[in-house]
Amino acid sequence: MDTTGTLIMPPAGSTIASEVDWLFYLILYISIFFFVLVVGAATYFFIKYRRRGEIAPTSQVDHNIKLEIVWTVIPLAIVIILFFLGFSLYMRMNIAPKDALEVKVTAQRWLWTFDYPTGINSVNELVVPAGKPIKLLMSSNDVIHSFFVPDFRVKMDVLPNRYTSVWFNAPYPGQHNIQCSEYCGKGHSEMLGIVKVVSDREYTEWLESAAGPGEGIDLESYGEQLFTSKRCVTCHTVDGSLNVGPSFLHLFGENVYLQGGSQVRADENYLRESILAPEAKVVDGFEPVMPTYQGLLKPRDIDALIAYIKSLGQEQGEQQ
Ligand SMILES: [Cu+2]
After folding, report:
1. How many angstroms is it from 221 CA to the middle of ligand 1?
2. How many whole angstroms separate alpha carbon 70 and alpha carbon 66?
3. Is 320's pLDDT higher than 70?
4. Which of 292, 294, 305 is nearest to 110 (CA)?
5. Are residues 187 and 145 in the same domain?
6. Same-domain pairing of 200 and 279
């Protein structure tokens, strides 16, 4: 299997990828062959039969049955063969094996959520065991998105009010990028994720560690973990610098200026509302692009994120 990729194709990360590439290159080379043949013949005839001096009388032949049959039957046979190769591959790419592991994918502006059979979920990071067929059952909470993993040669629209699905089998451990390939608004280009293909053992371990999140560690440190794992980090910083969203440094306890001119004190309830209903109070100077985390965070997760933001809010030497 090709794991480095070529000039026009990314590395092949799934079992189907090499078949897709094979058919792609077959069509490409057939096209190049006929392009050279047609353009070559045309050039040759231009030169051979160019006008030189007096025009000689041309022959009266205006068609040739044999020739016409040949140039109709050969291309027809080629496209029929390509059709069947393409159709059979299309069917295999679209019909998931019965024993596939099913993961529910939810797209929303602008993140991906993955729900596993064991009841846990992850954001922007799909963890799957290597060498097993994985079926993704996908739907959108808002507009049309498209789930695209170039390394797997897998791409499918994700629609509101309706399920679509894709499947893949990634034989080797490794990481592959997920992109949204249907323009879905301002944060479209940041709607990125990763497929982490891991060994069976690592997959089981991961399921276990994700199942009892944050147990045995204090809220603040757990919140710090969530800040990264729930992807707040793509839009927020904790060092005061601006990103797509405001920084959390010294946020807690401060007055926040909102769009429309009002002000609000950044207390626990404001933080909670900002996470669950971000559009309710939009910070002045920012676009309302934050996705709602309603349903994606457990009560303890919200507590932990708030505790973490609070820990960044305390100015040195100041007691809140
Ligand atoms: Cu999208």
Report:
1. 31
2. 6
3. no
4. 292
5. yes
6. no
Is there a single domain that holds both residue 206 and residue 225? no
CA of 121 to the centre of ligand 1 (A): 19
| Cα 164 to ligand 1 centre (Å) | 15
Predicted confidence (pLDDT) per residue in 231-259, tens digit: 888 889 999 888 889 999 989 888 999 99
**Distance, C-alpha 59 to centroid of its chain:** 62
Residue 147, in any domain of the structure: yes
Domain that holds residue 157: 101-211
Pick the closest to residue 224 from 211, 212, 240, 213 (CA basis).
213
The CA 149 to ligand 1 mean position distance, Å, reads: 13
User: What's the total number of domains in the chain?
Assistant: 2
Name residues with Cβ closer than 5 Å to ligand 1, which is an ion: 145, 180, 184, 191
Distance CA 177, CA 192 (A): 7
Note whether 282 and 207 are same-domain residues. no
Cα separation, 108 vs 185, whole angstroms: 11
207 and 224 together in one domain: no
Distance 288 CA to ligand 1 centre (A): 16
pTM of the model: 0.70
Same domain, 207 and 180: yes
CATH number at 205 reads: 2.60.40.420
